[in-house]
Amino acid sequence: MKTILSFPQKKTIFLLLIALLPLVSISAQSWQLINPLYPTKDAFVAAYNVADYGASGDSVTDVTAIFQSRLDTLRILGGGTLFVPRGKYRINGTLIIPKGVTIRGEWQKPVKGQAIKGTILMAFSGRGDENATPFITMEPSSAVMDLAIWYPEQLPANITPYPPAIMFGKPNYFGNDFCNAKNVTFVNAYSGAIFSRLNGGSCPIINGLYGTPLSRGIEIDNIADVGHIESLDFSPAYWSGSGLANAPAAGSSFEGWIYQNGTGIVMRRNDWSYTCFVNIEGYNKGFHAAPSLTTVGSIPNGHNYGMTFTNCKTGIYLEVVSSDGIMFARCNTVSCETGVAIASGTSGTAQFHTCSIGGTLNGISVDPASTTRTMLEQCTITKGKVDVGGGTFMASDNDFNNNQPQIMLGNNSRGIVTGNRFSKGVNIQNNSLYTSTIDHTPLTLKALPAFPDVSAETKKPSRAVLYIATKAPFNAVANGTTDNTTAIQSALNKASQDGGGIVFLPPGKYKVTGHLTVPSGVELKGSADLSSVPMGPGSIIEVYADKNNAAGTPFLKLSANSGVRGMTFNYPEQVYSNLPNVPAYPYLIQVTGSDAYIVNVGMRATYSGIDLFTYKCDNHYLDFVAGHVFKNGIRVGGNSAGGKIYNLQFNTIVYAAGSESKFGSWANSPTGDNSGAYDYNYANLDFLTLGNCQNEVLYNDFVFGSHSGIVLKSENSSGPTGLILGLGIDGSRNSMRFEGAGAGNMDFINSQIVAYGDTTTTYLSSQPSYTGSATLFNSDWWGNPGKGLIMNGGTINMQQANFHHPGQLRWGNLSSGALNVHNSAIWSVGSLLNGGAGPRLSARSSIIDSTQLVTSTAALWKNNLGNIWGVSIVGAMDRQGWTATASANNGNAKNALDSNATTRWDTQGSQVNGQSFTVDMKTVNTFHAIVLDVTGSPDDSPAGYSAYTSNDGINWGTAIATGVGNTGMTLISFTDKTGRYIKIVQTGAKGNYWSIHEFYVFGKVDVASVSVTPVSARFKVDSTLQLTASILPVNATNKAKVWASSNTAVATVDSTGKVKGKSAGVAVITVTTLDGNKTAISTDTVYSTAFIKAPIDPAAAQFRIKAQPHLDQISIAWSSPDKWKWVRFEVQRSADGAQFSPVATVTADPEKAFYTALDARQANDEAYYRLQAISANNQVAYSNVVKVNPSGTEGGLFVYPNPVTGSRLSLQFREGATGRYQLRLMNYMNQAVYQTTVNVTDKHTPVTIQWNNKILPGYYLLEAVHSNGQRFVKAVVIP
């Protein structure tokens, strides 16, 4: 926003100035028309030539004093140009360019790799000290033009800091405005053109800077009004090809230094600055948007067009992003590592339209801690990742030619991705925690129109002859009192009679009571031919004609093929005391024919500015017309075609603060309260009116303080057509007023529109008479008028509009016509539209709230998201069973977990430090984000917060995250943390409640265990067995698992747990969870029936039996290594060892390796036992024969039950000693599977042992050893 307050008054006292300059030689100037060696866009006049004062361009002689003496003399004269012819000029000291003064040399536009020619200033001062006095320091409204600056002692192998080559702004000087640097080559300056951090001001004018600035090309900061930065070209190739001493070889180490350390453009507080037609090659950063170093919190906005960044590490680096927007159109990154990088902590809106963006690593990179709205439309992503970590990524109608995945949306981002094309097949990696909209339906949208490359055009008479109006026979007098009407007109007529030429007015004030006409072929020229508002110095015509006669003859008429340059016009009788009854005057300038030009012209206290409508004036050309008008600025019509209006710069402050010394100490300006000047312009000024004109091109035009910034109207049933780039309207009551249209369109690119005031103000209004169509490509709107848009006719199309302040009452009042917004951002507003306006609105792929609008009534409402982010529930953890508690209003804490956004928990009082809200997730989980959804009460987010986690709800440790809540939705993100409990502690204070409508956690429920059923199974070869794995907890997030077989020759298992038998044997099947690597097993036996076809060799049987007498039974035990051959076993008994008969039959089981059977004791003294094994085909085999004495005792140790039942066994020591026994139960490998110690007190009381571990079935030996060495061994069968 532009300041409208006046600065402290300061007055220039010329006697004092002269006293301070006793050594200055005030010799008579010799105004001369310079005929430079190289072509120029203008014919320039110089007061002095340094060569006439002994300055030698021999590269050896120090000429600092000569240069500064002539510059100071020009200050006293009131401004003018010091000419420096071709040569190498050694400047051991530093230079100050006074107000109104230009230093100008002979300059040939450099070519990469070719020698630098023309005027070269050799800089030596300040080596090693970047903060030393700059080589050139500029006062307001001064200029450095057409020369090169070279540092001979700068060595490419050892880059050394120097102060800036050009500093805009003199320390401790009132004013730093309209410093001009044009056509300057920085051969090897450490820093090029820098706007002073010590002396704030406005409107730096930079055009045509080339070369190899090493650390910074330009840096803008500390300005309060629009800067114009155009036609920059920085590359290492300029120095290496310069042909100057110590120039590096192309490709040598200095290029690496620039790549690691150099920045082409540093843009800090720039207050809308225009940056256009830029080429930056080989720097660390091509364009760097950075915070102000002088005004805390100030960041750049503005518009950028036609920029290319080649071979930079980062093409465009946005360290900060303004909420008002920062716009890029036709900006390209080529072979950079990263095309566009948007840094942590950024917010606001970055708009990219018709850009080609690519990077060897990243095409676009947005930090996860950014909330920027990154807009892309009709762009081409040539190469590299599009990694959007945070903010809203709005991409529509683009071409993604990069590799898959073409777009990666991170947890903290969301996307509106619509209508794009993907040359390599679409793959969008969407990891967003929030609601996004992705739609690949093709779109048909108007393409960004081609805009001509803009550079200063050649505007000068064909006949280069100078007529000095103050010389005889004309004898004009610049004393402010003598009427010079006749003198000046006589000079103009004489030039015309002679065939054309330049009528020159030396600096001073020329009173003119009549009217002037510039004939064809003639130029009226002042001494300060530089881009500036009226600031005091220079050639000033004071206009007196036709006061109170608005219909009178315009003061200055420009004939066809004529022009005016470098002049200031002032109306001395427009005194502030007249306001609000401002006397009316006719237009200041009227163009009466084609090919007329007005360049570097200032006007102040003017009632109406320039008339381009009374006559047909094709190909009119305006470039940097600047200052102040009361009623009408510039009006175009008359069926004119092909006109160009560039770089208008108007601000009410020029008149309102004109009494200040920095603005020229004008007598007709207010000296105290100046608000009346602003009020009058707010109520009356129509700045730019376009009527019946065709193909009008407007470029980087700006006004502050008007009723209407631009008016489109019909004349004779025809309205304007053309194209407008960089329109800036600030402080307007009705910024854009559309009343009529031509047969074609009037389209706008990169517009910056500000309107503010009461509820009657608006950004844009259309009248019923407007039946045309206008498209705005990239536009930023702020200032908060009463109603954003008022439409009563026509069609307005907006692509990538950013309405930071939509309007006090509502965004749109649509009574008629159609409003179409696409890929735009309309920030929160109380009411979107007036009632019944829905059918006149089309909103697509935008951030826009449907406040008080039934979206189904809209002409189109598609793929839009709201300003408050919605959580994508799909990505949140299941909250079933969770509970919540709170430090206040605990009974309602559950509402934050009830999946009902209309309910909430709140503190029932203002927020104070220490309030807490705790959630128990019931299981230990791993998580990385928490969302506090307060969409239903958007202002009730926490003033501050700290988040904690705990496994037990008692020990919380240090905070896992801290921050400040966001409106509507607060995302708390961090690296993976593990815990069961989450606690949010409110750390700030504000009047609102702290509310949570829904509490979401993003992460995973960890797997605690896995089990498998059955744990063992027996099945045949070629059959299958289905195993089932059960994962706990049942709501574990990642239940993925893998199955594996220990012996795939026996059995295989697939991904579902289905086991297939391959051959006889045992296989262990293991299931493993991917989360936590938890495992479980199933031991499975596969058996085969194929053996029934094979004969059995009885001699090959490999089994033996054992028999053991007990109290009333005989136990028989055996093992069978050939367990796959038998179907049953028969236990046989014999009294004599010859004749056997069966006593028991046991079915074979391939899963068992050990068997037992029981037989009753016999009466006879002895018995014999053997085993018969029978196969499926009734072949048999026999075991050994064992003899048992049934009537005998069991010796000293009696064991029962045997076979064992369960895991318990009783022992009775009938013949052993009492005392302590060491017991061991040993398997067939003589390994102890159980051991213990018992104490025997007598022979009749049994001792019981029991084992808790599982012991496999089998034949075991129980060993009992007394402490005296006595040993007993008994066979024990465990079935």
TrEMBL record:
It comes from the Bacteria. Keywords: Lyase. Residues 866-1004 form the F5/8 type C domain. One of its GO terms (molecular function) is lyase activity. The keyword Electron transport does not apply. SUPFAM superfamilies: Galactose-binding domain-like, Invasin/intimin cell-adhesion fragments, Pectin lyase-like. InterPro entries: Big_2, FA58C, Galactose-bd-like_sf, GH28_Enzymes, Ig-like_fold, Invasin/intimin_cell_adhesion, Pectin_lyas_fold, Pectin_lyase_fold/virulence. Gene3D superfamilies: 2.60.40.1080, Galactose-binding domain-like (2.60.120.260), Immunoglobulins (2.60.40.10), Single-stranded right-handed beta-helix, Pectin lyase-like (2.160.20.10). This is Pectate lyase superfamily protein.
